[in-house]
Structures are given as structure tokens and as C-alpha cells.
Amino acid sequence: MMDTGRKDDKVKRNLLAIDWNASELPTLPKVANRLLGILNNEDALVKDLADCIDKDPALATKILKAANSAFYAMRFEITSIHQAIVLLGFREIGRIALSSLLADRLLSVAPIAKSHATALWKHMTAVAVLAKELTPRDALEPDAYTLGLLHDIGWLILVSQAPDVFVSMCEEKGPNTLEMERLWATDHCLWGAKLAEKWGLPEPFQIVSLRHHDPFQEVEPPKYLLRVALADYAAKALGVSMLNTEQNELDYRILKALSFSEDWLSDWLTTLQGNMDRFDAIWSAFI
User: What's the number of domains the chain is made of?
Assistant: First the structure.
């Protein structure tokens, strides 16, 4: 497992106390663990994924709702999980399933935090979609959608253990995210990396959780990390964020490392802004 304290002083700061053995600590649903195992198994069959999902009727219903949403714009109704996998693809249905499970986790919170937790889930879903769009189809690297979907799981620690603090941070106007966290003695990046390790997720999930705000803290940041960092920036530029803070400045080394130009970024953001209904369609499928 990775050393979440390397090359910075995060662990030296006086952070809000977290009980990492508490019963209310966020857990990854068993079905999510099974899904991740199937998605990462090159020998897995369509039947394996369909059987896993069909054992959870509520999950299957949400997946079919999402598959039939305007986000995918299918010309006819999809009526079974097996059909959905055949038409949309093995990995895509797995991604929808994980998105649904994360939605359930984030929307099952204290009433005081629900609207802000919903905004957090929308941000995580947007980052997942954008990270996937930034990744070439033939890229031999971890699934960008899943990495983007789970990049901000560190906030789940605050939602579960200090919802009042989470709500106050969301409602307070202030500087950028990292400055806001310094003021409130929180660190969603460090906590996310530790939670990913506790959940038994592979190292890329820990790296993305820890470094998505400062990817060049890694000596040679992997491309998947840079793509999630850029997707995170883009989502916030589109106004998809739960914090009422100023936009962090983009480290333009990210663009250079991914062979993108500033003009490309401007055009991409303009295109995305004109297609926000795509995100509304996928969000409404789960909420």
C-alpha cells in the first residue's frame, strides 16, 4: 500500500480527530466490492455481471432507468440487465452500477447534510464522466470513470463523522478548497487515500484521492491522475461543486503532459457548458 504521508506535511497538521474504528465510518457495500472484482477480472462474463446486479432488484431498477435516460439516447427501451450490458457494454453498466451505489451512500445521510451531499455526488459523477472522456479508448491504465467517481471519497469521512462541519464548510464563502480546509482543520485528500486503503482499493484509487489537487507532488504523475485532476478542474469550472469557494487555478503542466493546449481547454469547456443537459439526465436517473 502507498505511504499517504510521503513528500508533504499533511500528516503533521493538526486535523479534526477522526475515529477510524467507528461503526459509522463509511463502508463500501458488498455488492460494490463484487462489482469491482468482476470489472477487474479479464475472464469475467456478461452473465457474471448480470447475475451480480439482478440479485439486487433496487440496483437493477436504477440501472435500467439510467440506461434508458437521455444520457444514452437509446432508440428503444432496454428491458433487462443482460440487454443493457450487450447494448451499452460490460464496463459501462458496471460504471452505472457503482454510480448508483455511491448515490445511495451519499443520499442516506443526516437531513441537515443531504442537499450538500447530493451536490458532492453530482460533482463526483461529473468528474467520472469527464475523466472517461479525456481518456483514449486504447489507454492501458485503470478505469478513469471509476477513479473519477471515487476521487473525493475523503469527504464521506466528514459527512459521516462531523456533518455539522461539512454543512458549515459548504455554506461558507471563502478562498479555494485547500485554504478552506486549512481553516476547518480537514483534509479530504489525505482521508480519502486512507479510506481507499481501508476499503482495500488498488493503489491508483489511493493516489488519485491523495493527489488530485496537486498531481505534481508525484515525481512522475501517472496520466490517469492528471486526467482526473483536469476533470475535477473542469467540473468546478462548470459550477458542479458543493463548496462555495473560488475556483482553484489550473496547473498548466497538466495540459502540457496530456498534450492539450489552452485553446483546446477553452473550447472543451464551452462545449461542455452547452451540453449540461447530459449531466442532468444521468443525475435524475439516480435521484
Answer: 2
